Amino acid sequence: MKNKVSLAKSSKTWNNADRKPRFWRCFLPVLAACLLLCGCSPKQAEPARYEQTFFDVFDTVTTVIVYSGDEDAAQQTIDEAHEMLVRYHKLFDIYNTYEDLNNLCTVNQNAGNAPVPVDEDILDLIAFGKEMHETTDGALNIAMGSVTALWTEYREAGLDDPDHAALPPEDELEEAGRHTDIGGVVIDRTAGTLYLADEALRLDVGAIAKGYAVQRVVEQLKSEGAGSLLISAGGNVCAVGTKADGSNWKVGIQDPYSGGYLLAVRVDDRSLVTSGTYERYYTVDGKDYHHIIDPKTLYPSVYYDSVSVLCADSALADALTTGLFCMPLEEGEALVDSLGGAEALWVLPDGTQTTSAGFEAYVVSDGE
Ligand code: AMP
Ligand code: MG
User: Fold this and answer.
1) pLDDT over 90 at 105, yes or no
2) Do the strands 250-254 and 60-68 form a parallel or antiparallel pair, or are they unpaired?
3) Is the residue at 190 inside a domain?
4) Which protein residue's CA is at the shortest distance from atom 2 of ligand 1?
5) 180 Cβ below 6 A of ligand 1
6) Is 9 exposed, middle or buried (CB count within 10 Å of its CB: 0-12, 13-18, 19+)?
7) Number of domains composing the chain
């Protein structure tokens, strides 16, 4: 289960049924013009809250919330966010191909064979993934798709038939582990191509794609003047400004054990992303095996039950949560401190919580 956005009740929620009739949509601008000509200014509509949820991007639940004084403009913003997310979803999909489009699935299918001409957005995402591999000293590795695919195969089989749930065979894991060299992911900006130099190497961008896409969408909407909005794509939340009344956007961080909330943080002009063992796992011989794989062991990382990152950039937050998940606490704390402007909360397997120095300043109490 992913984080749930903790939100105040809508003063107005978008609903097709309550759209103004066509007559009023045509008539209102005329009325406004008349009032202006009469020398009296029309009263600016109070910003209302518009919200829509989508189920067709990044295999998760995505909600877009916009505050605006203009209903049509709010819907336009929501539609644009959705269209952009659908486009990124198709480009970054590693499981499906689409007509007339080279995406990451196409690139994986051509491993060891040929460079694939791809959209610049794909090159940017992969360049970011390579950069974060370096930043996290290899803890985040998007070239580990052959290993994560094995875990996914065995997890799905185990969930379908729990009595026969099994771990991936050691020799298969080791063989897959020999094909995870990020150096084999070759970006050619001049030719506009992406090439996997090892035929058994596979890209898996599950750790960065959502955060990256959400960040790009938010930047575009901000450049078009959006001043108060929030996008939540699964565990990735990114907010622009504050709510229209100046109050904070607040988001709950899930308790990995109870399914309730550990605490809430304010995310105005920030992003909050959480990676947790509870998000995807299966059980073999009474032991749970989750989906975040430590590149050093090729087994699910054992350091934490959840890691949350709060920072200005959603792509960085997403990449960091997964990277931090695969490194010991001391290393993680040093990395977060070195980045400046990023804060983190680690929940250790014994339930203890540790935070970076500035995290506390973002925690809000129930009454706030
Ligand atoms: P997240 O929920 O952002 O932590 O991403 C987890 C997903 O990223 C997994 O479902 C895998 O697809 C992929 N993944 C798992 N471990 C790693 C890792 N160490 N580096 C990069 N991607 C990973
Ligand atoms: Mg991540």
Assistant:
1) yes
2) unpaired
3) yes
4) 275
5) no
6) exposed
7) 1
